Amino acid sequence: QEKLVESGGGLVQPGGSLRLSCAASGFTFSSSSMRWVRQAPGKGLEWIGSISRGGTTTTYADSLKGRFAISRDNAKNRLYLQMNSLTPEDTAVYYCVEEPSGTRGQGTPVTVSS
What we know:
globular; six-stranded mixed beta sheet; mainly beta; four-stranded antiparallel beta sheet
């Protein structure tokens, strides 16, 4: 059974940084491309970016390119999202998603506020 567990969210001041983590289990992590998505209060899901199975290729939403970076450690079955220069508009629940199946975790909330 596929399982994804996000962590690392919390309260951060504008301009700050956070690193989110996603622990994967129940499937062959290294065989799956992955993505991060987010959902801001009262809004729909927004794609942040994706990473290939080996981690060599990443793509990002144009609006987030340069501030967010996705990486993975296949030996640890972990996916990461480094977020920099955060603004209140980045406040959302962040989810990791296994791309072939669409399975996602429970999410980790991020609040950007002073």
